[in-house]
Amino acid sequence: MKICFVTSSYPLNAADGSARFIHAMAESLAAQGHHVDVVLPHHPQLQRWPKDVRLFPFRYIWPDRLAIMGYAQATHSDKQLRGLAYALTPGFAAAEALTVRRLHQQEHYDIVHGHWVVPNGVVAAWVARRVRRPLVISLHGSDVFFARKQPILRRAAEAVFGQAAAVTACSPSLYDGALDLNAAPDRLHLMPYGVDTARFAADDEQRSQARRSLDIAPDQTVIAFVGRLVEKKGVPYLIEALSAIKDAIPGAICLIGGSGDDAGSLAAQAKRSGVGEMVRFLGALEWAHVARLLHAADIFVAPSIHDSEGNADGLPNTVLEAMAAGCAIVATHLPGIESAIEDGVHGVLVDEKDADAIAQAVIRLANDATLRRQLGRAAQDHVRATFGWDRVAATLTDLYGAALADAQCQV
User: Fold this and answer.
1) 179: CB partners within 8 A, 6+ apart
2) Helical (H) or strand (E) element with 5
3) Structure confidence by residue, pLDDT tens digits, 145-164
4) For residue range 298-323, what is the model confidence (pLDDT) as tens digits?
5) Is the distance from CB of 45 to CB of 57 less than 8 angstroms?
6) Model confidence, pTM
7) Given phi > 0 = left and psi -120 to 50 = alpha, else beta, which region is 86?
C-alpha cells in the first residue's frame, strides 16, 4: 500500500530521539513492503535521512525563528499552547494540506494517516475527504488533552473521529479520552508503541563500558531518568526522593537525560535540597546516548504524574526502552505504564507524587541485586514478546486493509 503520514514532529536526524516512534512506525511499515511518505513542517535542522521513508517538509512562516509549530515547540510544558501557535495555525494547516494534496496527485495514496488529531488530523481529514481515501488517526498525548479542554478543538476532533475509518491510541488514558470525544468504539483501537529491542539490549561488557564512558565506578548505584523536563514527567518527586536515597545508599548517583522548560527549576531544586552533587543533568541526548545511559543504569525511574492542568503521560517510550535494556524500573500507577508493567513482576509501581514511596522502592532495589536482575530480565522478556515494532506494523496493515475494503464496499 501507499501511505501518507501527516505529522507535526519527527526525528530531525538519525541521532535524534524526539518523536522517534513516528519514524519507527513508518520504518516498520516500509519493512513490510509498504511505501510510506511523511509530510511534516520545515525545521532548519531537519535532514532527509531515512533510507526507506521519504520526508516532504513544508514551510508555513518566515523567518525560521517564528516556526514553532511541531517538534514540541508549540506548548508551554505540555500544558498551554503558546500564543503564537494560535496565529500560525491557519497558515500551517493550509501549507500542510496543499503539500498532502499535491503529493497525492503524484503518488495516488491508498491511505492518509494523521498523527495527533489536532492539528494534523484535521488536515488529513480534509484532504482524505476530497480525494476519497480512507483516513486513519493515531493519538499521541497532548492532542487529546487540548481537545478535551477547548471547545473549538473538541468540535474539530469530534469531526475528525466521525470521518476516520480507524483511530489508534497508545495508552488506555488516550483511548478513554477519544471515547469522551465521541470516537466510535468499533473504530477505536488500543495500540501501544513498539521498541527496538535489539538496540537497547546489552551484555555485561557493554554495561561496563557504558559506565566507564560516564565516569561511574563499578560499585556505584546509578539511578536514571530520561524524558522531557516538563511537569507531567514528575521529576521534582524523584529529586525530592534523593535526600533519603543519599543517606541510605552512599555514593549513589542520579543521571537525568533530557531538556525542557523546567530544566532550570529542577537544577535549582537539586541544589537547594542538598543533592546537587549526586545529580547530573545531561541535557538533550542523542538516541544512541539514551541506550548508553540505560546500559549504565541500575535503576530507571519514571515518576510520571497528572500535572496541574490534568495532563499526563500515556506510555512513555523511555519506559519501554528501559525495559528492553533490562533495567530494574520504578514507575508510577498511570494507566499507560500499567499496560506495560505489572507491579512486582516487571518493575515496582508506586503512587504518583509520592517521593517517599519512590525513595523506598529505589533503596529496596539498590540493596537487592537479585531482585534487580529478576525484574530486569522479566521486563526484557515481556517487552520482546509484546512490544516489537513488527507487531505495530502488522496491526496497522490490518487496519489499513479493513479501511480500504470498507471504502470499496461503499463505492
Assistant:
1) 185, 188
2) strand 2-6
3) 889 989 999 999 999 999 99
4) 999 999 999 998 888 888 999 999 99
5) no
6) 0.90
7) alpha
